[in-house]
C-alpha cells in the first residue's frame, strides 16, 4: 500500500479557455445531427439544477433521504454566431437578409473544447465537451450608442437541456472526454467525428453510437 501524497509534480491540474465550438442541428430529412463551426464563443457555463435531498420522517426519526432528479442547463456567450443559430433563438429567415422573431425554437446540440494545464505544462491536454438536446431561452440584447471608445459586450443565451439515453447508465445531457486519459486513437476518432475530415462531414452521434465508435478505434 502507498501513503497518500498531495500536490505532486505534474498533478496540479486546471482547466481554462473555450474554443472550437460546433453547433449541431438535426437535418429534417436524414435526422442526422450535422455540425457547423461556431466562431466567436467567449464562454459556456454549466448550471445544473435539482438533485437536492428530500428527507422523509417516520416514527419520529429520519426514515430515508431521497435525492431528486438533476436537470442540466447553462448559458452561452459569444461575439457572433452562425446563421444556423437563428432558428434556436426563435428567428426564421423569410427571404435572404430578412428574419421574423418570436417563432418556435429549434433544438440543438453543442460541442466545444477546453484546455487542461498543470504545474509543469500549460498545454498538458484538452477536453471535448458535448451538450445534447437543448433549447435556448429568450434572452435580453442591449444596443448602446457609440462613444469615444467602442465597447461591445458578448451576446448571452441561457439554455435548458433534456436528457438522452446511455445504455447501462442514467440518461444524461452532457459528455466529457479528456485527452489525458482517453487513448489517442479514440480521441482522434472522436474529433474526426465531431469536426469532420477532408472526406467526411461533421456529425454528432448519440452517446451509445459514439461510445461504439470509440470502442472500435484502435
Describe this structure in words.
The protein has 218 residues and is mainly β. Helix content is 10%, strand content 45%. The chain has one domain. Strands 1, 2, 3, 4, 7, 10, 11, 12, 15 and 16 form a ten-stranded antiparallel sheet that branches. A two-stranded antiparallel sheet has the order 5-6. A two-stranded antiparallel sheet has the order 8-9. A hairpin with a 2-residue loop joins β13 and β14. It is globular and about 65 Å long. The model has no long low-confidence stretch (mean pLDDT 92).
The shape is: globular
Overall structural class, as computed from helix and strand content, comes to mainly beta
Strand content: over 45%
Biggest β-sheet: count, sense, barrel?
Answer: 10 strands, antiparallel
The radius of gyration is: 21 Å
Topology as a string of helices (H) and strands (E): EEEEEEEEEEEEEEEHEH
How many beta-strand runs? 16
- Count of domain modules: 1
Question: What is the arithmetic mean of pLDDT?
Answer: 92
Number of helices: 2
Termini separation (Å)? 33 Å
Residue ranges: pLDDT <50 for 5 or more in a row?
Answer: none
**Portion of residues within helices:** 10-25%
